Structures are given as structure tokens and as C-alpha cells.
């Protein structure tokens, strides 16, 4: 059984703002390890938006890890579901390279805070495992510690993006106008999701084949 890690973060922005900013997280000064991101699938079903993306990341390989890993770059599959009815954004990520050396599976649920409806809580869970005989437990411990540090950088980076998009601490748009949440009905949000899916479909089809092929290499 692998190692488990969980953390919870409160973003002082409403749920709609956090969801909108989620697609604009990169680049930011705290996520230099994220090299690229490509949408390979997007579809609206009912009031839910399903998306699959491929991210390329890199991390410094420790000296002892060089015997197992020849290239610090690794592909990451990110699958997400935006649920408008329940106001949740759930993401699942996993690495698609060097999985026998170290596999990292992450789940994050973004939801409206119970304490403040204008804030968003992100509950992050991570599982780290390894199949390297003799190094399994050491690699798991290393992976959890790196995961913890990356979580801290993620929070800094996400808050950086949110502060740029909503400079008045989550109360205004980029043009300075005040956001009135009551104006955004479920139907309006659904139409926006459909429009986003339509714009992404051609891009997904054109990029899916070569991207996945490169991961298999």
C-alpha cells in the first residue's frame, strides 16, 4: 500500500471565480515546473463539464533517483468535472511516465466554504506508490514530501493568478465592475460551458493523437 497525504486550503474567492481561474493557472511564478498544457477532450453533459488535459512537468531528480529516471520530464493526465448543480470542481491527476518507479495519484475537490459562501475550500488528497524493490518505502516517503511541497507552491501560484484576475480580493472583474452572483443562473453558466466545449473540440481532436503518441514513447 502506498503513502497517503491530505490537505485543505481556503481560497478567499467565490466558487465561480476559482473555477474560471482554474483554467488560467499556468504560467505563474510558482509553477515553473509546468512546461506545457494541452486540452485533449472536453464535453458538456447536462450541467457538467468534463475535461481531459495533458500537462508536461519536470522536477529535479535527486542523485539517488538518477539510476531509475533518465529524463526529468513526465506527462500528467488531468481529468476534471465541473458540477454546476452542486457547485463542485473535482480533478483527478496521475503521471503517465515512470509509474513503476513512482506513481502519484491526486484528487482535489473545490467547493463552496461552509463558513463563508464567498470563499472556496479545496480538499486535496494524494497517493504515492512505488514498485522498486528495496527502495519502495524510501521512494514513497520522498514522493509524499515532494507532493507536500508542490501543494504549497500550487496554493501560492493559484492565489497569484486569482489576485491578478480579481484584484479587489474576489469582488470585481478585471474591468473593475462589481460581480453580482445572483445574475448568473444555472442556465447562463450552462451556455458558457457549452460554448467552451465547442471552442475546444477542434483543438482537442487535432492534438490528441500526437500528444498521446509522444507519451507512449
Walkthrough of the structure:
About 30% of the residues lie in helices and about 35% in strands. The protein is an alpha+beta fold and about 220 residues long. It has 2 domains: about 5-170, Alpha-D-Glucose-1,6-Bisphosphate, Chain A, domain 4 (2-Layer Sandwich), CATH 3.30.530; about 180-215. A hairpin with a 7-residue loop joins strand 6 (about 105-110) and strand 7. The radius of gyration is 18 Å and the shape is globular.
Instruction: Please describe the biggest sheet, giving its number of strands, its sense, and whether it closes into a barrel.
Output: 7 strands, antiparallel
Number of strands: 7
How many domains?
A: 2
- Average pLDDT taken over every residue: 83
Count of alpha/pi helices: 3
Order of adjacent strands in the largest pleated sheet = 1-7-6-5-4-3-2
CATH architecture label of the largest domain: 2-Layer Sandwich
CATH-wise, what's the superfamily of the largest domain? Answer: START domain
Distance between the terminal alpha carbons, to the nearest Å?
Answer: 28 Å
Order of helices and strands: EHEEEEEEHH
Labels describing this entry:
Protein preli-like, alpha+beta, 7-stranded antiparallel β-sheet, Slowmo/Ups, PRELI/MSF1_dom, Alpha-D-Glucose-1,6-Bisphosphate, Chain A, domain 4, 33% strand, 3 helices, 7 strands
Task: Characterize this entry briefly.
This protein has about 220 residues and is α+β, with helices and mostly antiparallel strands. The chain has helices at about 15-20, 135-165, 185-215, and strands spanning about 5-10, 35-45, 50-60, 75-85, 90-95, 105-110, 120-130.
Amino acid at each position: 500500500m502506498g503513502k497517503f497525504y491530505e490537505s485543505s486550503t481556503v481560497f478567499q474567492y467565490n466558487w465561480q471565480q476559482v473555477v474560471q481561474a482554474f483554467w488560467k493557472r499556468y504560467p505563474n511564478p510558482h509553477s515553473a515546473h509546468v512546461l506545457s498544457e494541452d486540452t485533449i477532450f472536453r464535453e458538456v453533459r447536462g450541467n457538467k463539464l468534463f475535461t481531459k488535459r495533458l500537462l508536461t512537468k519536470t522536477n529535479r531528480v535527486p542523485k539517488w533517483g538518477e539510476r531509475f529516471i533518465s529524463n526529468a520530464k513526465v506527462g500528467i493526465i488531468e481529468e476534471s468535472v465541473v458540477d454546476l448543480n452542486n457547485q463542485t470542481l473535482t480533478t483527478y491527476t496521475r503521471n503517465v511516465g515512470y509509474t513503476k518507479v513512482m506513481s502519484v495519484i491526486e484528487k482535489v475537490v473545490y467547493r463552496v466554504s461552509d463558513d463563508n459562501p464567498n470563499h472556496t475550500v479545496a480538499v486535496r488528497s494524494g497517493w504515492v506508490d512505488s514498485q522498486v524493490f528495496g527502495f519502495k518505502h524510501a521512494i514513497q516517503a520522498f514522493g509524499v514530501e515532494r507532493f507536500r511541497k508542490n501543494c504549497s507552491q500550487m496554493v501560492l501560484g493559484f492565489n497569484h493568478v486569482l489576485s491578478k484576475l480579481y484584484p479587489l480580493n474576489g469582488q470585481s472583474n478585471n474591468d473593475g465592475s462589481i460581480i453580482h452572483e445572483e445574475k448568473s443562473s444555472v442556465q447562463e453558466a450552462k451556455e458558457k460551458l457549452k460554448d467552451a466545449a465547442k471552442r475546444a473540440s477542434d483543438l482537442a481532436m487535432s492534438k490528441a493523437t500526437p500528444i498521446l503518441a509522444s507519451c507512449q514513447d
